[in-house]
Design goal:
Structural class: mainly alpha
Shape: rod-shaped
Mean pLDDT: 81
Low-confidence stretches: none
Strand content: under 5%
Oligomer: single chain
Largest sheet: none
Length: 163
């Protein structure tokens, strides 16, 4: 009789041990999945802030280029007028060259901004996707643990009877 009670106690203890272990592991993996989701959301928000910063910086640089051009153009006009050059072909060519320099600088700025935004968005996309994949893997582990309780219990039961 005492052997049957001991065997029953061992079975119950084994089942509780496996259930407790599975529950704590499931909770751990769920917490890890939540943390990965949170990191993905934070990375996404940081990418949006970075994109806004890139746009603002480009706008400020464009304004600075335009102001420099306007100042240079005014100075050139004043210098030409002071020297009595007026509207000669050389003066017109110099003014066109100044305008051309502004346009090429602005085009370079637009291209650099587009490149920065592309890199920012790609980096964010890959980072967020990696974190979401990580969260998915943790969820998968958690769900596999909940389905394996019976198999772990039966394995323990088999081990008790194999002594």
């Amino acid at each position: 009789m005492g052997g049957a009670v001991n065997l029953g106690g061992a079975l119950v203890t084994g089942a509780l041990s496996v259930a407790g272990k599975n529950k704590s592991e499931r909770e751990y993996y769920r917490a890890m999945a939540q943390a990965a989701d949170k990191q993905a959301a934070l990375q996404e928000a940081a990418s949006k802030r970075q994109a806004e910063y890139i746009f603002r910086s480009a706008a400020q640089e464009s304004t600075r280029l335009q102001q420099e051009y306007t100042a240079a153009q005014s100075a050139q006009k004043a210098a030409f007028a002071a020297n009595g050059l007026g509207q000669s072909a050389t003066v017109q060519q110099i003014m066109q060259d100044s305008r051309w320099n502004l346009l090429t600088d602005q085009q370079t700025l637009r291209q650099n901004t587009a490149d920065e935004l592309y890199e920012n968005n790609l980096s964010a996309l890959l980072g967020v996707q990696a974190k979401r994949d990580e969260a998915s893997q943790y969820r998968s582990l958690s769900s596999r643990l909940s389905g394996s309780f019976l198999s772990q219990y039966l394995q323990r039961l088999f081990n008790v009877f194999s002594y």
